[in-house]
Amino acid sequence: MFSKQFIAAALSVLSALAVPSPLVPVKRSKNPIPGRYIVTFKDHIKRDAGVSYLAGNLSSQFKSTHKWDILNGFAGDFTDTDLDLMRSDPNIMFIEEDGYVYTQAMVTQ
Fold first, then answer.
1. Which candidate, 2, 21, 28, 102, has a CA 20 to 30 Å from the CA of 87?
2. Chain CA centroid to CA 43, Å
3. CB 41 within 8 A of CB 68
């Protein structure tokens, strides 16, 4: 038979494993493009495999718009529901709103 200590330890391990992982935070942009985000995968995930997996599990509105060799991720158009699903994906390291970036301050005369 199992001892009370073993059962207590087993239950504490199981309850710790059942705790959901925290949601991936979304970094906000000063000038966001509505519905468009940059998604970065964790190092052990290959970008093309990650994008294919997401395409099969997100809404039909999902669209990958950019892929870069320098970043293990991509930019795409997502619904709010898609964003919530990606935030809970353990293979995603980072999500950021895509936005407009200006190289110079605008000057009016």
1. 102
2. 13
3. no
Q: Give the pLDDT band of residue 108 (cuts 50, 70, 90).
A: confident
Q: Residue 74 CB: number of other CB atoms within 10 A?
A: 20
DSSP H helical ranges for the chain: 4-18, 47-57, 80-87
Look at the chain and report how many structural domains it folds into. Answer: 1
pLDDT digits (tens, 9 = 90+) for 26-44: 999 999 999 999 999 999 9
DSSP 8-state class, residue 13:
H
- Answer whether 0.85 is exceeded by the pTM: no
**Spatial distance between the Cα atoms of 50 and 54, rounded to a whole number of angstroms:** 6
| Residue 79 domain-assigned (yes or no) | yes
Tell me, yes or no, whether 80 lies in a domain. yes
Instruction: Using the structure block, give the residue that is written with the tokens 């000057």.
Output: 107
Name the token pair of 59. Answer: 């809404």
- CB contact at 8 A, 65 and 37: no
